[in-house]
Give the backbone structure.
Amino acid sequence: MTLRELAKAATQIENGGPIPPDLPEGEGLIVGITGPPGAGKSSLADALTAEFRRRGKTVAIIAVDPTSRQTHGAILGDRVRMQRHHDDPGVFIRSMATRGATGGLARTSSSLARLFRGAGYDFIIIETVGVGQDEIEIASLADVTLVVLVPGMGDDIQAIKAGIMEIADIFVINKSDHAGAEQTEREVLAQESLDTRRAPRPVLRTVATDATGIPQLADELQTRQKRAREARATWRIDHLGIAVRSIDEALPFYADQIGLPVLARETVEHEKVKVAMLPAGDDSRIELLEPLNADSTIAKYIEKRGPGLHHVAMRVPNLTATVERLKAAGVKLLNEPRAGAGGHIYVFIHPSSTGGVLWELIQE
């Protein structure tokens, strides 16, 4: 795909068009950069891009800027901050407005990320708008989420703990040449020590404007890219689908009692279902499924069996090849591969072929 063709496809997708049907999956790592306003997210994305280019890696950048509620326009300033890459054929920068979407992203950010990964970019960097406590949609899209903090936040660390602090894969203390960097790092590490549900997450210091700490951050991301590629070569559990009568009624148990944050909520009209995604380990999730109406498959499931485990979803390296192999073996499939919640491509296997459990296969 040429740069002109890629730009045209990106524009079509941003305007509501489909992803090219013959697009390969790609192996690029999707890196989300989020954090409070003024943390230096654009500068960090710019510095990371320069470092990856020095290493011979290609980079696509999706820079999301807020849309004005009054004028409905957006100042796409992130592109201005990345001017040094504008004539580099190994870098593709796409600025986009939120167009009223909440959560720190635009509605088509997920599809654009898939487009750039399919186009063969090694790293796809998504910079969210300056986010608040509950704007955490990037976690359901990115392979690795960087939460960018700055010295001097003080009590703000505690204030945002229940939101973006929980979705971080890596904490980056940017502008670490400013006073208070050590104190900010201690505060983050103190918060980490209180969370016994997960392994400690890396805390790295950077000064994006002069590239201090950027090589170390790039090393960490390349290591995670290697792990992601190894994981894509094997089957693994993506999520457990649990049918519930009401997501809002079920969440007090999952969110309040167990402490699992809601990564994303979505309505999938063609499936007649509402979905809430919650983390369940490093790569797995719990998917709560609420029927939209009585004709929903989930509604019929609940009527027959009651709320409970609806399906097991597995990620597979090559869904097309897997489907062909299953068909040849006489395995009963419920649908042809199609797009579902979050834009992933999936197919269901009938319980009669799996020993009684509905299986969902998802393209890695």
Q: What stands out?
A: The chain has twelve helices and 15 strands. Residues 336 and 347 are 6 Å apart (CA to CA).
